[in-house]
Amino acid sequence: MSTARTALETEEHQALRAAVAALGKRYGRDYMTTVIREGTHTDELWAEAAKLGYLGVNLPEEYGGGGGGMAELSIVLEEFGAAGSPLLMMIVSPAICGTVIARFGTEGQKRTWLPGLADGSLTMAFGITEPDAGSNSHRITTTARRDGDDWVLTGRKVFVSGVDIADATLIVGRTEDARSGKLKPCLFIVPRESPGFGRNQIDMELHAPEKQFELVLDDVRLPADALVGDEDAGLLQLFAGLNPERIMTAAFGIGMGRFALSRAVEYARTRQVWKDPIGAHQAIAHPLATAHIDLELSRLMMQKAARLYDEGDDIGAGEAANMAKYAAGEACVKAVDQAVHTLGGNGLTREYGLASLITASRVARIAPVSREMILNYVSHQSLGLPKSY
């Protein structure tokens, strides 16, 4: 099945896509299902991807990265996903945390974290969602107060991926503005073993190497240099991380959809019940063709979002990244559903590796923000319609 090796991508991008695809195929879906079944992590693929420079391709060269951007990093995640071995922590560690630190961190923070994030020796998680706030970042109740030169964080987070394997978590808290008394968002680096930083694994039906956690911050004391960037620019810094998150979630969904579709196409070509392979029948062929079209269209919007972001257009990238995430989530769910349906009973067997994607594909619709909240964003920001909240 063809992929987007067109004039839209540079020769360098096409070469990156081919190289990552080759690595992904050496691991494949069997590797991922084995890791999940054994309760381990994707350490081997993560390490090899890091050694080849794929994990840090978006980070600055002076700190060990590849000097690229979201355009390159999204290619990496998409191709791993298309091979059946998506690395969810790529969304969090190099894309969100690496980008925020590279853009807004102090020189000390950059030298401490970026080389490790680039070579895979360090990993960071990202904590924003709260039990009562959901997608509303304005209702975040995790607070940070000054105590001498230190910061003290108190609050709770939920659905934080990979905290158990992350060396630190980038926590979104809120500090009090001395002038207005209002709370404003700020970002803090919280090392995994910080006193008062507790975690509880959430029992998920989702089968993935990366576990989900609830975090409890009970008066976690942090030094002054745990604050990332300017205390008064927290919202700007926050959204600088959320745009890459949406772009990479789109890549995650597109890759997963491509993997499912490729399995279905292969099956439809060879499965013969009557005279011809089932793929010759339009009832089978047309839905698969539609799924392919939707995935290709999603990639176009993802590429637009990545380019706008890499060019420094945060506002333009925000609109495109939300649209890309929405489109990819819908395309992914539909592709997986159609793939399973194409295989019939075989689509629900472990042998073909599609059944588990029924649950996994929903992630692209739900996280990091629901499709309804994206529709709110587009209706307000793009169309200028009034808010209902």
Q: What do these coordinates show?
A:
The chain is an alpha+beta fold. The chain is 51% helix and 14% strand. The protein has 10 helices and 7 strands. The protein has helices at 11-38, 43-51, 70-82, 89-104, 107-119, 234-270, 282-310, 314-343, 355-366, 371-382, and strands at residues 124-127, 143-147, 150-161, 168-176, 183-191, 197-201, 212-222. It has a 4-stranded antiparallel β-sheet, with no helix packed on it. The chain has a 3-stranded mixed β-sheet with strand order 1-4-5, covered by helices on one side. α3 (70-82) runs parallel beside α6 and α6 packs antiparallel against α7 (282-310). The longest helix has 37 residues, at 234-270. The protein is globular, with a radius of gyration of 21 Å. The chain starts with 10 loop residues before the first helix and ends in a 7-residue tail after the last helix. 47% of the residues are buried. The mean pLDDT is 93.
In short, what is this structure?
The chain has 389 residues and is of the alpha+beta class. Helix content is 51%, strand content 14%.
